[in-house]
Amino acid sequence: MDSLQMRIDHTTVPVGTVQVWWLGGAGFAFKTAAGQVWLVDPYLTDSVERLFGFKRMCPPPLRPDEVRCDVVVCTHDHADHLDADTLPAIARNNPNCVFAGPASCVKGFRTLGFAPGRLVELPVSGTTRIAGVTVDTVNSDHGDAAPDAVTPLFDFGGVRVLHSGDSSLCPVRFKPLYDLRPDLLLPCINGNFGNMNHIDAAQMAQQAKPHTVIPHHFWLFVEHGGDPAGFLYACKHFCPGVTAKILKPGEGFHCPGRN
Q1: In a domain, 26, yes or no
Q2: Residues 116-141: pLDDT tens digits?
Q3: Mean per-residue pLDDT for 47-67?
Q4: Which residue of 24, 30, 85, 112 has the fewest CB atoms within a 10 Å radius of its CB?
Q5: What is the rounded CA–CA span in Å between residue 6 and residue 174?
Q6: Beta strands in the chain (DSSP E)
Q7: Cα 101 to Cα 108: distance, rounded to the nearest angstrom
Q8: How many domains are contained in the chain?
Q9: Domain for residue 208, yes or no?
């Protein structure tokens, strides 16, 4: 039986599109037309149960030692986003992989022993170029425990993907990213720990106006919550012109750009 990593390896991505896979939680993998593989917030172990007692409810679709990728982005330094058990295996097996995130994440990468030359610090508000990809970031609102958490928008060869990170709904903060006309929106919907719930996320889709929206951050831990069925219903009300999709962990989606 083929693995998710084998599917990623063997997927050819046409120009003007990007292939997306949900890794569970807030994690996603992206493959570009140039053949690059990017991971955002990959949580592929049970480290949060060991550290905090939150039991993982869905197995990861990928083992850390299977991963082959070029860039890893962590939106903030919480353990289910910057996974201290996942990232070292990725770093060890992908010697050219770059690790990016806000200052708190860069500190975490250094604690894990990653070489300074492999690290990119993302500003809480600004634009960064990584491996030919433009990453625009704004400061999320994820509370005092993650003051420099970021919400990134990736321009993968003209396909713009907006990942909410962990955040409440912040229309004013998010507007610079909305103005970049995202094609795909990936909002959190867990509704706990200061994050958007399913209604907030549907309102974000209404404001951002992507052609497709795929929610994340639900059903990973019982404590997180999340209502994907309610999200689909809310999208019909708030943004009927946007295609709302629910992925299962490991499932892919082929995303075209609009330009």
Answers
A1: yes
A2: 999 999 999 999 999 999 999 999 99
A3: 91
A4: 112
A5: 35
A6: 17-24, 27-32, 37-40, 71-73, 98-101, 119-121, 126-130, 133-139, 150-156, 159-163, 184-186, 212-213, 243-244, 252-256
A7: 10
A8: 1
A9: yes
Domain hosting residue 128, numbered range: 4-245
Can you say how many angstroms the Cα of residue 57 is from the centroid of all Cα atoms in its chain?
19
pLDDT digits 0-9 by tens, 149-163: 999 999 999 899 999
Tokens for 170, please give them: 């912040």
Q: Report the candidate in 172, 35, 163, 193 with the shortest Cα–Cα distance to residue 100.
A: 163
For residue 251, tell me if it sits in a domain. Answer: no
Check which CATH number belongs to the domain holding 110 and give it: 3.60.15.10
- pTM for the model stands at 0.96
- Cα dist. 188→110, 113, 195, 225 in Å? 27, 30, 7, 11
Q: What is the pLDDT of residue 225?
A: 81
For the beta carbon of residue 253, count every other beta carbon within 10 angstroms: 15
